[in-house]
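Re-running the complex after MR caught last week's input typo. The corrected sequence lines follow. Everything else is unchanged.
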Amino acid sequence: MTRVSMKVDGVDYEDDVEPRTLLVHHLRERLGKVGTVVGCDTSNCGACTVLMSDADGNQQGVKSCSVLAVQAADRELTTIEGLSGPDNTLHPVQRAFHEAHGLQCGFCTPGMIMAAVDLLKENVDPTEQEIREGLEGNLCRCTGYQNIVRAVRAASEEIRRGGGDAEPAPPSQRAGEDQTPDSGLPRQDVPDETIPQPVP
Amino acid sequence: MTTTEIGSPRRRKEDARLITGRTTWTENVTLPGMLHLAILRSPMAHARITSIDVSPALATKGVVAAFSGRDVADVQGSLPCAWPVTEDMVHPDRPPIAVDEVRFMGEAVAVVAARSRAAALDAIAAIEVDYEPLPAVLDMEQAIAEGADLVHADKGTNKGYTWVFDSAEAGTGGDAGAAIDDGEVVIRRRYVQQRLIPAFMEPRSVVVDPTSDVYTIWSATQIPHILRFLVSAVTGTPEHKVRVIAPDVGGGFGGKLQVTPEELIAFVAAKRLGRPVKYTESRSESLVSAHHGRDVIQDLELAARRDGTVTGLRVKLLANMGAYMGLVGPGVPILGAFMYNAIYKFPAYRFECSGIFTNTTITDAYRGAGRPEATYAIERIMDELAVELEMDPLEVRRRNWINAEEFPFTTVAGLAYDSGDYAKATDRAKELFGYDELRQEQQARRDTGDSVQLGIGISTYTEMCGLAPSRVLGALRYGAGGWETASVRMLPSGRVEVVTGTSPHGQGHETAWSQIVADQLGVGFDDIEVLHGDTRTSYKGLDTYGSRSLAVGGIALYNACQKVIDKAKPIAAHMLECDPADLEFTGGQFRVRGNPDGGRSLADCALAVFAAHDLPDGIEPTLDADAVYDPVNFSFPHGTHLCATEVDTETGRVTIRKYVAVDDIGRVINPLIVEGQVHGGIAQGIAQALFEEAVYDADGNLMTGTFVDYTLPTAADLPEFVTDRTESPAPDHPLGTKGVGEAGTIASTPAVVNAIVDALRPMGVNDIAMPCTPERVWRAIQGGAA
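Corrected-run output:
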């Protein structure tokens, strides 16, 4: 057993872990971060993608099935559960996935959203091709990717319009209590221009 | 009926939990005292288990129990097949844990229950098994040859069944054999549907809790209701003592339309140990043990006159069942049997299919289930006919298809197609595609000998959705009906709970069902909660597959809403002191006809029955209503998909230049969800055409046992799709909806392969085996093995 400290979604944890424990299993089984999921065992699917700080403190996307928990010692991590801002406001990428119908069964979604956040942190204005290549490490079986690409482009626009970057909002101490069944999503209106129209 | 919601691209309710990581996957369920299971699987395709010793596992730290098939032989039962397609179908026993013999790589041979997943995995490595290898039967044609080795020695044959449909015998058409003998043109082709893996993103997972009055099973399944009935039947546990919960389920595509060995193993383990157990498969286990799809050899003979009119079609199939019969596996090719005549007015048709046992993972439903295979074969061979007759492939189709004014049309396979307009969808697709311009470009590239050739692929399709009229299923020897249920519960506050017997796993039923109810009852979209996937709340249903949920379950829901209104009417009349016959109901309000003021809302009625202080005499104090709907017919969506591919003749690389899909799925509840279904379906069909294949080596080892080798397309592998719709409402029910879940998968595979072959016709290529990898395309160009 090795003593490991890490900060996940704004909360400090210190646990004894078996050295062979994968980060994703540590997150899910010890820390209860079950929003992050396991989709394969060969690091192909990317469903387990989270953000983890590097030596300089910059958070970058990692496949948490390919990282040992002990390798995350003293790092800061953001999972899908910590991506929403204070008062449960959604990250622009989360909002865009909802608006553009970028998910169906939703199993790949946590990883796909984290990978998209990572992509937009690197390149806030990616072309369609850059988005497709940037998400190549994440598999989705439901959507055919078209609405995922659409969502990432919409998020890119929103982030740039806001003049901000794709950095996740600082975690809120209230995040937990906000995540209740009735917190839901912001009331939706359905602007006509978002109805998909075929473009010859 | 007011329709502010129906047809609106509502953003999905489901998303709130899915985009924030608050989802309940089965793997997330953790119970006090829960044990983790690991399964030891056969490394061999076919072998006798000469000895097995689980005791070393028991000596491993953290292990609570370990057992082999022999240890549970008397209680584990045999996995069910719900579709014995012929009276004499061979249905070998299939114990969840193999007892004496393993018949495919990945079959379970022993189980360990331990405190942690890691401890369980450590322990299965300690189990000692001795195998005596037996000859592996892998090739379907060899399997039915004289003197073949047998998958099931005691059955004496590898042929599970032969099922025949002949239009002359059925009285639905002429004699296909005679048509072929007399054909002015006869095209004969063999097509091979390679083996595919559904590859839902959420691995299968099951939790069984035996610690209360009933057994509670959480499972990543498409079919909680069918699972409950069959777990009860197989294990002899009274049905009312089994509760099944399908919580959030991460995709299925038919792959979770199964009663699995793992579910029964977990049930048996929990029952034996008296403690909750959990089993979640790894992806590698999933690829080798969850059922596969397709794997059919298709021999077609198509006869036509020189003017392009088809006079007859004969189809002979060999369908690989794998080592055992799956839940509905034998019936999958039979679903296709009714679709080979597709959108055409063929006058004579014969279909014969044999289900063959091999030492491979079982096959069963995969998105489209029989219909993609049929559509692929017929749309490929229609192109061959066009080439033979030197006609435009669209013109050949036009000469044979059913015209809009001919609906309803009874086909040579005996189905009554409900509605459609193939010309309209095709014209729209051509317009969006720029068909004539692309044909010109194709000619220009041919003329200049461009190393990158352009091909145009056409796929016109129909499918049978809305499975299914119960009587038809009965006639096909399917074990269950095809009805669906819905309940509407009016809460005292006027909010609504909807209970559906469908079981979504990505389809957005919570959203679409809310839209239907909001329109019918005039309540707010957000004031509706849709409950599903728990046999305690949704005690009756037939679940989600075969593009049936909206086409059948949506109608049950519509009917339940009408019953609620009927029940509320006398109560509203009582409050308004008028005759119920004078009331009309719009926008959630009962009003006296001609008087726009002073009505009573449905919520008023809900509160009135809750209090029940002042109801008319003899009125039951509830507005709640149940409905069960058994469809009178299938529904028949159709469409035209056009694909342009660029084929690099030097490298064999195929790039999809343009993809246009115009689908007619009847009336649409939510165009956003429909578009998503079409996109995903097209992606899976393209994946069959270009990328995916489950491959066994000569010893029966699955060579594509991880996502490294079984290559799902990524975002970078797929193009942007152009989608549009035409609308021919289903005439047989009030919502006019038809079903969309499988359309894209059915249509896209032949569109892509037709486009590749079309690009290479001048080089003498008339077929390429799927998946059309660069190597296969390059070899075809070189005139080598296709």
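None of the earlier attempt is carried over here. DSSP finds 21 helices and 28 strands in chain B. The first helix of chain B runs from residue 15 to 18.
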